[in-house]
Every structure is written in structure tokens, then in C-alpha cells.
Automatic annotation (TrEMBL):
The keyword Hydrolase does not apply. The chain crosses the membrane at residues 6-30, 37-59, 79-97, 104-125, 131-155. One of its GO terms (cellular component) is lysosomal membrane. This is TMM79 protein. It comes from the Eukaryota. GO terms for biological process: regulated exocytosis. Keywords: Membrane, Transmembrane, Transmembrane helix.
Amino acid sequence: LLCPCLIYGAYIFLPFDAPLLLTVTARLVYTLRCAAFATFPVVLGMIVSGISRLCSSALEPFGELHREVEIHRTYVSQSIHLFILYFFNMAVLATYLPQQLLKLIPLLTGLFAISRLIFWMSYAFGRSFRAFGFSMTFLPLLAMLLWNLYGMFVLEPENLLT
């Protein structure tokens, strides 16, 4: 319920528009540039994971990990998987969106980055708190997937394999 409200509010009130992108190649390059910002939480997680592994007091570096190290390692692993799903869905979404809705690409990128950071912080507090951050990541991803399937099979079925 919160994600659509955040996206709609940002779409209406943020004062920027997407550039005029007429070709599919230009749209994919725009998506790739926006997706570069979505890697920020993943890279930050890798840095913190490395530092926490260096600072842990484990005598065996490949032995059992402490809880703090395991939290960061799990976050990075899950974030990489979700980023791959996010990026491919965003690339397909950019090809089906009309020009006036291309403003959604950077907004969804920002939502992805913020929701991964919220998930990370809530995961550190406990496993029961992480559902909010995960749902803020997963539900927009699911909505993008459903829109992409709708676009491929209903809106343009003749261009499915071209």
C-alpha cells in the first residue's frame, strides 16, 4: 500500500521529466544509467561486509561466521539476486512504457535503493522486522513483472519474438 503511494507522490510532485527517448536503444541506455544508482546499496553492503569480516575476532577466516558478519553477507547475496531481477524487468519495462511515463524508471530505481537500505537496517534489528523492507523491494518488482507480461502477451503479441 505504501509503495504505490510513494511512487505516485514522487511522480506528481518531483520537478523533473525524462528526456525525449524515441528509440529502444536510447531507452535501454537510460535504464542502464538509472540502474547504476541502484547498485549503491549493494556496493555499500559489500564494503561493510568486508570490513566486518576483517574486524571479526574469528581465528579461522573460513570457519563459522559471527551473526554480524552473516547479516551483511546475506544482505549482499540477496541484494545481488534482487538487483538482477530488477534490472531485467526494468529494461523490458522501458521498452513498453509510453514517453510520458518514462519518469517512472528513476523513481523505481530510487525506491529499490531506499527499500534495500531499509531492509538492511531492519534485518540487523531482527528477522521479524525485515518483512517491511523486503516487501518494498519485492512488490514493485512483482508489479513490473506483471506489467511486462501484460505488455508482451496482450498489448503487443505480434512483436513478442522480434
